[in-house]
Amino acid sequence: VHLVESGGGSVQAGGSLRLSCAASRYTLSTYCMGWVRQAPGKEREGVGNILTDSRTFYANSVKGRFTVSKDNAKNTVYLQMNSLKPEDTGMYYCAALDNRCLGVEYWGQGTQVTVSS
What we know:
Largest sheet: 7 strands, mixed
Strand content: over 45%
Low-confidence stretches: none
Helix content: under 10%
Distance between the termini: 37 Å
Structural class: mainly beta
Mean pLDDT: 96
Order of helices and strands: EEEHEEEEEEEE
Shape: globular
């Protein structure tokens, strides 16, 4: 399984960014896919997951602001981030988890998101 993130960057508070995760073939139909972030000096935090049946789950800190979606034909998972806050700053990783979304089996290399106030 190969995961490649893109779309990170710098944005002012209140702005939006969309991250993409290009996955190798059949990954999205096999694994729960998730986005995990890590702020400097903090532990990794799960942001949101999308199951093979497209059900989604979100951390309370991003609910209503972030949306995880996927395009199976393009083997790509997206993270749409709206109303960004400085505390959303961090490295964002795409992950392929087991089908219960309990454990990460594969990681992408990460993409940096910086939100300035």
